[in-house]
Write a structure and sequence with these properties.
60% helix; 2 domains; mainly alpha; S04_transporter_CS; two-stranded antiparallel sheet; 4-stranded mixed beta sheet
Amino acid sequence: MRCSGPRLKKCLLRTFPVASWLPRYSIRENALGDFISGISVGIMQLPQGMAYALLAAVPPVFGLYSSFYPVLVYFIFGTSKHISLGTYAVLSVMIGGVTERLAPDSDFMVWDNVTNSSMVDTTVRDAERIKVAAAVTFLSGIFQVIVLGLVQFGFVVTYLSEPLVRGYTTGAAIHVIVSQLKYTFGINPVRHSGPLALIYTVIELCYLLPQTNIGTLVVSIVAIVGLILAKELNSYLGKKLPVPIPVELIAIIVATVISWQVDVEGKYGVDVVGLIPSGLQPPVFPEVSLFGQVIGDAFALSVVGYGIAISLGRIFALKYGYKVDSNQELVALGLSNSFGGIFQCFAISCSMSRTLVQESTGGKTQIAGALSAIVILFITLWIGALFEDLPKAVLAAIIYVNLHGMMKQFLDIPLLWRTNKIDMMVWVVTFILTVLLNPDLGLAAAIGFSMLTVIFRTQLPKYSALGRVPNTDIYRPLENFNQVRNVPGILIFRSSATLYFANAEMFQDALGRKFSPLFSSSCLFVLPPPRPPPPPPPMHALFLLLLFISSCHYGVNRKTN
């Protein structure tokens, strides 16, 4: 195949979408909205990035790095105009499980001669956890680019049904909440891993409650109540204000000032963020020796992160009338994560809250995302150190309040009970498996269960004989409508499931039951009666309404004629 000029240009534009839309960028139509949106989202990225870094069990400043490098990469390779890439709670807690499993506190205990007791060397521990987070992030990006992206595997997300995704994210939100309780109460439980780890953690938290730091608890309660009230005020005034009130930014500024003035760390033992180095980290290739230990976690991260991003991307693409390339999105996310892993970031995806802010404040192109990254760069280089006295309990409070959307997903259960009980089972089982088995194993088990329900649906389909409503072209089940009548000489049989080897016999039985007065005994698959049956009425055609029929079971239809 010759590489002609037009073909090469088309390939380059598909690989680098920014080269396609940026030259046609309309400053008059888009610049103001993108500018306001980028500043607004960048302000949101600051508290969320620092808070979600705690979920990933790395120092808060690495949440800022993760809100900068990957976002710039996505600006070049991404095709969605509206999603806001950056730190995401579910992925952060998944990474936190990996970092705390491979770099637990118990491996970094040292003897303190001043207090005559052992303590955790947090400097060495955090350095090791950063290496683990970077390794799993880099590997997840490689999975997205090579294993999924280059082999055009974007369709894999179609197997993640909406009930599965919503049940999974709700279960992961429970892990997020439990992981932050230690910052709320000022206690330090031992990290558990494997199945039932969440249950063991909750039990240990209950044992440690008598050791609660009252100062930390007071800070947490005040922060949670204040954030909830401010969010409600923001919602009430939302239509009257051009941009939302930056509630989280105000919260961390106020908390930092009060913490610095009162010295809550020295007087009350409240844990604060601590040293925030200015500047950016130099690129460091992740440790290859860690890849074998995180390969399963990396694959789970790649699937979940892509599933969330492409779902939101398609929603906004449909709303605004453009197309999101699912396979290019895989490549864009993969490059963002692999490039971010080299700069010691942790895995990123799309946040619903930031995306809604980006859209509502006028963001129309990927320029808004690039501007938000520039805001984070400015904060990281010049003013990040001002937040060293910020209590970690306030960051935990920000996480709690931002999870209210996921908690509302519990309302799916009564709705699904009324509309589709199998989908409700998928939601509930996915939630339970995620809570009990941890997010990585829970996702694999939930996908397996979801596949089983597909088989289950084919085993219990709805069969119906259709008739026509008089004087119309509308057909309805005969057993449900009294006015519906058979079309003379024509029988119509509908099955809600595909016809294949596992349900072929049930299909034959159901067809026989529906039209038993019209078929001979051989069609009913029972022993012949003692005397010949009456001849069937004249029938010109039998219509079978099926979604799909296996090629090896055309004979089933021949037996009915």
